[in-house]
Amino acid sequence: MPTPVVTTTPTRWDGAFETTASSRRNTPGPGQVAAGVTTPRILLISGSTREASTNTAALRTVAADAGSDFVAVRYQGLLDLPAFVPGTDPEPPAVLALHRQLAEVDAVLFCTPEYAGMIPGSLKNLLEWTVGNADLSDKPVAYVNVAYEGRGEAAVATLRTVLGYVGAELVEAACGRITVLQSAVGPDGLVADVDARTRLNAAARALAAHAARAVEPATTVRLEN
Ligand SMILES: Cc1cc2nc3c(=O)[nH]c(=O)nc-3n(C[C@H](O)[C@H](O)[C@H](O)COP(=O)(O)O)c2cc1C
């Protein structure tokens, strides 16, 4: 009698399967842990270079509140990136570090101010360095706009345009506005407003959940008799 075969899609936390983004993108195994349980890794990229930035504070808070649902990694190399020069070979260390950090995560969460009607030039510069390497191709991404109601809309629009150009997978369920006033940032550099903090965490968890689903292949389980 033939052995019955059952096809299942594993749930994320059952620990029975080893699933990583690398299975989809041939990258070096983001989110992979020894026990075979996958915890999504999210790179947090702030578009602000300002020391007391509200955008950076929002992402610092996401990292502080990450818990066990995802691993948060803050990107801190924006000021180290030189202006993009097509065809640079070899690429500068800061650019290689950017490629490596993007390869090591399952998703990216952006938080950026608007400067002169679009995303800051420094963030656009970062995104230009990713084009040749396809770092963001098919990578789940989301953004949170922390500006006041009615502000920052052009930053959102231009970020969406560039993310579309680089082939990122925009996770709409994790995108939105969560206003973070300067006065809502505490002396510890974290967002003190409880509601904003809860919503920031929810956005990151939605992105992590999507990234986890995106890397779960259907698995064939052979039942022994
Ligand atoms: C040079 C400059 C240009 C700006 N241009 C815009 C703009 O076009 N639209 C907008 O909504 N805010 C604009 N702002 C306001 C910033 O987006 C706002 O101060 C934001 O909170 C800065 O983010 P951060 O706190 O993370 O540094 C501008 C600020 C600066 C310094």
Automatic annotation (TrEMBL):
It comes from the Bacteria. It holds the Pfam family FMN_red. Residues 1-11 have a biased composition (Low complexity). InterPro entries: Flavoprotein-like_sf (IPR029039), FMN_Rdtase-like_dom (IPR005025), NAD(P)H-dep_reductase (IPR050712). Residues 40-171 form the NADPH-dependent FMN reductase-like domain. Residues 1-33 are annotated as: Disordered. This is NAD(P)H-dependent oxidoreductase. The lineage of its organism: Bacteria, Bacillati, Actinomycetota, Actinomycetes, Mycobacteriales.
